[in-house]
């Protein structure tokens, strides 16, 4: 089955599954921790927002023994791989979480490491709640690592290279505090909830692997506005600043904070 892919903006074109999946084992851990918060009911209707290349969407479908699962992603590069994982019960389509509207109520709305690129989480989560069926569950994971020095170095370098045209690190401003998500879920009328902050301990082979890590995600905003040649120069300069700041360590212990949240309607 071929996913439906429409026209896209520059930033979306920069998502590359090969680069993103370089650290797939580390990135998969929070996915399964998040899935573990769900209370599976056989035959449920599931949507995976920001589904990436679809591999984990299909695995989630199986894990939940779901009836139908829809994967939604805005990036053609990611969606181009989804036909490997599509089936009669697992479909994929292009959509932007910010403007996506549910074709029908869902029993489970799942979003692992995706809504951090969408503004105004209070409004987004409130909208998503409206798409839940009775007794529906929502499970969201967002990074909460903006205070790690590598993100600050990337933003500083962006300002040096691009001045006021440097794309802002919107993840920093979009992600709320864990307690703010808890308050929001309560205010939205979820009867039960679980919100937690987890520090994932990643032993990367070297300090420069942190650069490879962010090349799969937050450096995409620079890739979208720089020429190919300038982007390579940007990454080289970024790598040397990261090594200067953190030291050339091998292995490098990379702490990564993430917020996992789950809530259920009665
Ligand atoms: C870090 S990856 C996570 C992929 C997958 N959920 C996983 O756990 O492996 C983030 C995904 O969110 C998608 N994404 C980012 N912003 C989005 C948006 N506004 N609407 C839909 N998808 C988005 C990206 O294209 C990318 O595939």
Structure summary:
This protein is of the alpha/beta class and 266 residues long.
Please provide a written account of the structure.
By secondary structure, this protein is an alpha/beta fold. It has a domain at 10-146 and 171-203 and 254-264: 3-Layer(aba) Sandwich (Rossmann fold). The chain is 38% helix and 23% strand. The chain has 12 helices and 7 strands. Strands 3-2-1-4-5-7-6 form a 7-stranded mixed sheet. Helix 6 links the parallel strand 4 and strand 5. The longest helix has 19 residues, at 228-246. The two termini are 35 Å apart. Mean pLDDT is 92; it is low at 1-9. It binds S-adenosylmethionine.
Compile the SSE list and pairings:
Layout: H1 10-13, H2 17-20, H3 24-35, E1 45-49, H4 55-64, E2 68-73, H5 76-79, E3 90-94, E4 106-112, H6 121-129, E5 132-143, H7 149-162, H8 170-174, H9 178-187, E6 192-204, H10 209-215, H11 220-223, H12 228-246, E7 252-264
Parallel strand pairs: 1-2, 1-4, 2-3, 4-5
Antiparallel strand pairs: 5-7, 6-7
S-adenosylmethionine binds at residues 15, 27, 31, 50-52, 56, 73-75, 78, 96-98, 112-114, 117-118, 217.
Notable characteristics:
266 residues; alpha/beta; Rossmann fold; 38% helix; globular; disordered N terminus; binds S-adenosylmethionine
């Amino acid at each position: 089955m071929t996913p439906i892919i429409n026209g896209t903006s520059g930033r979306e074109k920069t998502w590359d599954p090969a680069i993103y999946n370089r650290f797939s084992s580390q990135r998969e851990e929070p996915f399964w921790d998040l899935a573990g918060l769900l209370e599976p009911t056989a035959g449920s209707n599931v949507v995976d927002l920001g589904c990436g290349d679809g591999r984990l969407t299909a695995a989630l479908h199986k894990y939940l023994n779901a009836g139908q699962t829809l994967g939604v992603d805005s990036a053609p590069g990611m969606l181009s791989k989804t036909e490997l994982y599509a089936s009669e019960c697992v479909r994929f389509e292009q959509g932007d979480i910010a403007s996506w509207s549910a074709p029908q109520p869902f029993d489970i709305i799942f979003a692992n490491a995706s809504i951090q690129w969408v503004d105004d989480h209070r409004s987004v989560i409130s909208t998503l709640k409206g798409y839940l069926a009775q007794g529906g569950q929502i499970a969201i994971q967002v990074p909460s690592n903006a205070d790690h020095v590598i993100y600050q170095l990337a933003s500083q370098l962006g300002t040096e290279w691009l001045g006021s045209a440097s794309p802002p690190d919107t993840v920093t401003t979009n992600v709320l505090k864990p307690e703010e998500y808890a308050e929001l879920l309560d205010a939205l009328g979820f009867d039960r909830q679980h919100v937690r902050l987890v520090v994932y301990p990643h032993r990367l082979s070297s300090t420069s692997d942190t650069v490879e890590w962010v090349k799969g995600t937050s450096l995409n905003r620079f890739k979208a506005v720089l020429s190919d040649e300038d982007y390579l120069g940007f990454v080289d300069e970024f790598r040397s600043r990261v090594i200067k700041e953190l030291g050339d360590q091998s292995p490098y212990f990379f702490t990564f904070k993430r917020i996992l949240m789950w809530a259920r309607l009665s």
